[in-house]
Structures are given as structure tokens and as C-alpha cells.
Design brief:
With about 170 residues, the protein is an alpha/beta fold. The protein has a single domain, classed as Alpha-Beta Barrel (Aconitase, domain 4). It has helices spanning about 15-25, 40-50, 65-70, 135-140, 145-165; strands spanning about 30, 55-60, 75-80, 95-100, 110-115, 125-130. It starts with 13 loop residues before the first helix and ends with a helix. The mean pLDDT is about 90.
């Protein structure tokens, strides 16, 4: 029982929240600060984020390799612009975020709009930069990550070879 001494039953774990969001079909995002992803085991950090059902990470700055690993896991990296950050926008975790301009004309480093709806129903529009820096990274992301991208390439190659043999 020692391990439960300092637990707070009113605050659910990140894992419990991720299960709840998946069940409700609500995509999760991470709002981060400066130097997001800095440290060791960045590839596992990106895998963990993806396995928790996180679809996007919004940050002020990001570690270069971690950004690449997020894309490889199918997680969209988005960067705050100007003076915007979690503190200046008064983000508490009770807001909803609607990312506009994602469905049309996705290109590397595109600026998109994000509508933030606060708990008190106030709304704010901010701009975010998609931190996809190349067309290849864009292909990985739009296919759900590197593994789904490679599997689709293999399947397409095998299918075309099967048709060539007819």
C-alpha cells in the first residue's frame, strides 16, 4: 500500500485520460513549452506519445531529432508563433482546439489557424506553423508515420509486380 500513499484519486493519470479520450473518440494534443523533447530516449518518447493517442504537439521550441521522431510516429508538430505560448494564452487544459487549414493544401512549414475555445466559451484565434520541413516528412505524416508509409510502399510494389505477371 506504500505506493499509493501520495496518489491523488481526483487527478487521473495520463494513461487513464488517454483511454478516456480514445473511448470518446476525442483526439489528444500536448501543449508544451520551450525545448520540448530534449533529453535521452527521444525515440521512445515519440513512441509513447503516439501510443497514448496524441495527434499533435504544440510547442514554443523543439529538439530537432524529437521533431523528426514525432513525424515518424504520425504525430503532427506545431509551433507557436510570435509571443504566443501556453502561459500568454492562459491555457489550463480545459480548452478545446480546432486546427483549421489542415485538410487543404498541406505543405511543409505551412501556417495554419487554431481556434481555442476556453471553458468560459471565449474564443481566440492564433496562428501555428506546421513543423514539417520536407516533402518526405509530409509523406510520412500523411501516411500515419514511417512504418505505415513503408508498408504501403511494399504492398504497392508487390501489387504492381503481381499485375505485371498476368
Amino acid at each position: 500500500m506504500i505506493r499509493g500513499v501520495f496518489s491523488n484519486m481526483k487527478i487521473p493519470s495520463v494513461y487513464e485520460l488517454s483511454k478516456r479520450h480514445k473511448k470518446m473518440k476525442v483526439p489528444s494534443i500536448i501543449i508544451a513549452g520551450k525545448e520540448y523533447g530534449t533529453g535521452s530516449s527521444r525515440d521512445w518518447a515519440a513512441k509513447g506519445v503516439s501510443l497514448l493517442g496524441v495527434k499533435a504537439v504544440v510547442f514554443k521550441t523543439i529538439e530537432r531529432i524529437h521533431r523528426t521522431n514525432l513525424i515518424g510516429m504520425g504525430v503532427l508538430p506545431l509551433q507557436f508563433l510570435g509571443k504566443d505560448n501556453a502561459k500568454s494564452l492562459k491555457i489550463t487544459g480545459t480548452e478545446t482546439f480546432d486546427f483549421i487549414d489542415l485538410e487543404s493544401d498541406l505543405i511543409p512549414n505551412k501556417i495554419i489557424r487554431c481556434f481555442i475555445t476556453y471553458k468560459n466559451k471565449q474564443k481566440k484565434i492564433i496562428k501555428l506553423k506546421i513543423r514539417i520541413d520536407s516533402k518526405k516528412e509530409l509523406e510520412y505524416l500523411t501516411n500515419g508515420g514511417i512504418l505505415p508509409y513503408v508498408l504501403k510502399q511494399i504492398c504497392n510494389k508487390e501489387n504492381s509486380q503481381n499485375y505485371d505477371n498476368l
